[in-house]
Design brief:
This protein has 208 residues and is mostly helical. It has 12 helices and no strands. Helix content is 73%, strand content 0%.
């Protein structure tokens, strides 16, 4: 067991070194060509995040602007470096489907997977699942799904979580869990939230 743990840490370290080297290359590319495609897209991304920070009501427009930008690997790296991951996690209660989709794109990069978790993304998804799908015990005592409760204790506008939005959130969690550290951290969280039973009951409810 100790040998397996050492090997796991070695794999994590190797993956982290490779991710760092890739990000450094992308960052240099954007810095060396500020007038080029990568540099221009990174600048537009930072401007969009600044608009979001200055005006929360502009969230829908900013999310729409970010979507094509995140097709660029350099922009996915810039998103985290500029604090954009935390901003998007903060939008999960009010814009769950779009924010989760953009974070999922960003999770193609290893460090972004960890950042989503550290910014509260994993907890947000597990709470959304808890509010949308009751356990058998909750059903027995007549507890209704609390779909209109804010996901992560946010002060954002309360909205119902639809099936499509929940699917986007769960997909985001699965992508973040590609990171070993996130996966190990989410296991006890999921157990405490009754996530495995909730997912099983959700699948049963979706059967034709």
């Amino acid at each position: 067991q100790e040998v397996a743990e050492v090997r796991r840490h070695q794999r994590e370290l190797k993956a982290e070194v490779q991710a760092a080297a890739r990000e450094d290359s992308l960052a240099r590319q954007a810095a060396d060509e500020p007038g080029g495609a990568a540099g221009g897209q990174a600048r537009l991304l930072r401007e969009a995040l600044e608009r979001l920070a200055a005006d929360a009501d502009a969230a829908a427009d900013v999310l729409r602007d970010l979507e094509p930008l995140l097709a660029s690997s350099a922009c996915c790296v810039c998103l985290r470096q500029a604090g954009g991951i935390r901003q998007l996690v903060g939008l999960l209660p009010s814009h769950p489907e779009v924010a989760a989709r953009l974070l999922g794109v960003a999770c193609a990069h290893r460090r972004n997977q960890l950042e989503v978790h550290l910014c509260g993304g994993s907890v947000a998804v597990l709470r959304a699942l808890r509010h949308a799908q009751p356990t058998a015990a909750e059903d027995a005592r007549g507890a209704a799904p609390e779909v209109r409760v804010p996901i992560a204790g946010s002060a954002a506008k309360v909205v119902a979580v639809s099936a499509e939005e929940l699917a986007s959130l769960l997909r985001l969690l699965s992508l973040a869990c590609c990171h070993d550290t996130v996966r190990e951290a989410v296991r006890p969280l999921a157990s405490g939230e009754g996530a495995y039973e909730r997912l099983t009951r959700l699948l049963q409810a979706c059967e034709p």
